[in-house]
Amino acid sequence: QVQLVESGGGLVQAGGSLRLSCAASGFLFRFNTMAWYRQTPETPGKQREWVASIDSGSTTYYTDSVKGRFTISRDSANNTLYLQMTKLEPEDTAVYYCKTILRGIEYWGQGAQVTVSS
Predict the structure, then answer these.
(1) Rounded mean pLDDT of the chain?
(2) Any idea of the CA torsion for 87, 88, 91, 96, to the nearest 10 degrees?
(3) Which pLDDT does position 26 carry in this prediction?
(4) Pairing between β-strand 60-62 and β-strand 49-54 as defined by DSSP bridges
(5) Which has the closest alpha carbon to 22: 63, 72, 80?
(6) What angle do CA 56, 17, 52 make, to 5 degrees?
């Protein structure tokens, strides 16, 4: 059974940092591309916004608004995905989700709330 469990969210002041973790189980983590998404109340249609991805070779990709501030990484020995967030802005306030795709099926974690106060 595929499971993704996020942790590490919280409340932080603008300019601060947080690290999110996503513990994965039920699949061969080291072979899968993993991604972080976020969802805010302001997102049109409540669509989740892609934030960053990391493939099995640890090549990383970022949406423009987080480049230079966020770092995605993975620990394949411990089946854990990370998102290090620095220089946080109030606009980063959202529920953050980790996601993977297996055999065409999307799997999501339950989400972690990140709130950035100004």
Answers:
(1) 95
(2) 130
(3) 96
(4) antiparallel
(5) 80
(6) 30
